[in-house]
Amino acid sequence: KYAALDETANVGSLVYLSLAYIRAGQTEKGREILQQILQKNAPDSAQVYGGLAMLYGELGEKDKAFAHIEKSIENREWWAFT
After folding, report:
1. 1-20 pLDDT tens trace
2. Are the C-beta atoms of residues 5 and 17 closer than 8 Å to each other?
3. In this structure, are residues 19 and 33 in contact, taking their beta carbons and an 8 Å threshold?
4. CA distances from residue 66 to 5, 8, 16, 40, 54 in whole angstroms, order as listed
């Protein structure tokens, strides 16, 4: 809840908050936070593609998930090697 309220919350906090809502069956709340991530962060300037890939995958949007995985690898995000 802290991440949802704090304007300075980092991308990782919001990704995992969104993921928790999605896994709890509250997909609309998860999507709201996903939109917040997209609005707060210019993907090219942040290590956000991996988190977006995870969220889209969890939502069953495989095409978007794989597109973000590719961008994560291209941008050499730290988690991409896993």
Report:
1. 555 555 556 778 888 999 99
2. no
3. no
4. 30, 28, 19, 22, 9
pTM, rounded to two decimals? 0.80
User: Rounded to an integer, what distance in angstroms lies between the CA atom of residue 58 and that of residue 53?
Assistant: 9
CB of 42 within 8 A of CB of 11?
no
Distance CA 73, CA 56 (A): 16
Structure tokens at 11: 């991308």
51: buried, middle or exposed (CB in 10 Å: 19+, 13-18, 0-12)? Answer: buried
Q: Is the Cα dihedral 33, 17, 5, 66 positive or negative? A: negative
